[in-house]
Amino acid sequence: MSARFYADLALVPGSTVSLPEQAARHVQVLRLQPGDALTLFNGQGDGRPGSEGEFEATVEHMGRSEVRVTVGAYSATAREAGRAIHLVLGMPANERMDWLVEKASELGVASIQPLMSERSVLRLKGERADKKLAHWRGVAIAACEQCGRNRLPLIHEASGLAEWLKSNSDAAAADTRLLLSLQPGTRPLAEAVAPTGALTFLSGPEGGLSPAEEAAAIACGFRPVTLGPRILRAETAPLAVLAILSA
Ligand code: SAH
């Protein structure tokens, strides 16, 4: 497979385009030459609703910073997971969140909603929140380039858990909502999920969710499930869910 690059552009076979800055830099780093083949994806496929394939492309011109490529054939290849899995999670601090975004993207996550909850270590707002969000979206793009996904996972702005529950309180929502819980007597994940259909998982930060937060989530339609008797780290638990359900 030739090197893959995300380009947030409408791509049309036969046209020549200038790659966006990030992809151009990446092509420069790989020292591709005119005539070399690459693969481009834009998350929108060829523009038809629901299409999410990729395009062959050939390097046309390597400038000092500009890279022009000719777009070739479109192939309607999709490498998405069989079901949509959404993660709503207490953000782990430091580079653990980067790690989570990368691995979750590889494992096919549909969306990630970072949360601040009572016991969160990481609190983000303003410019710092915007920077982090842009950084995580970049991590997801790199993961999709690497693993062959042509659709980027959606990464939402960080929100407080209470606010998120308030604006997503529809207990009759179409998705199945599951709360990753350490409470004794909780039902195992495998018993709680139907074989198909969208799923939304809520999991806690390093310090876990408070009993009041768990109760609020349950009131919003989340049903508690366990991943077993060991306490998994805040980034391990959601990744385990994706691995279990996408295998
Ligand atoms: N220090 C916290 C642990 C938090 S682990 C405590 O002892 O309560 C971080 C989050 O991962 C938890 O809030 C929970 O949502 C999830 N989690 C970890 N291990 C789990 C397990 N075995 N089953 C279900 N959820 C788990």
Automatic annotation (TrEMBL):
Catalytic reaction annotation: uridine(1498) in 16S rRNA + S-adenosyl-L-methionine = N(3)-methyluridine(1498) in 16S rRNA + S-adenosyl-L-homocysteine + H(+)
Gene Ontology MF, one: methyltransferase activity
GO biological process, one term: methylation
Pfam family, one: PUA_4
Ribosomal RNA small subunit methyltransferase E methyltransferase domain mapped to chain residues: 83-245
Alphabetized UniProt keyword annotations: Cytoplasm, Methyltransferase, rRNA processing, S-adenosyl-L-methionine, Transferase
Residue span, Ribosomal RNA small subunit methyltransferase E PUA-like domain: 19-45
Record has Hydrolase as a keyword: no
Localization, UniProt: Cytoplasm
EC code: 2.1.1.193
Enzyme kind, highest EC tier: transferase
Entries under InterPro entries matching the protein: Alpha/beta_knot_MTases, PUA-like_sf, RsmE, RsmE_MTase_dom, RsmE_PUA-like, tRNA_m1G_MTases_N
Function summary: Specifically methylates the N3 position of the uracil ring of uridine 1498 (m3U1498) in 16S rRNA. Acts on the fully assembled 30S ribosomal subunit.
NCBIfam families assigned to the protein according to its UniProt record, in alphabetical order: PRK11713.1-5, RsmE family RNA methyltransferase
Sequence similarity: Belongs to the RNA methyltransferase RsmE family.
Protein name: Ribosomal RNA small subunit methyltransferase E
Source organism of the structure: Polaromonas jejuensis
Taxon lineage: Bacteria, Pseudomonadati, Pseudomonadota, Betaproteobacteria, Burkholderiales
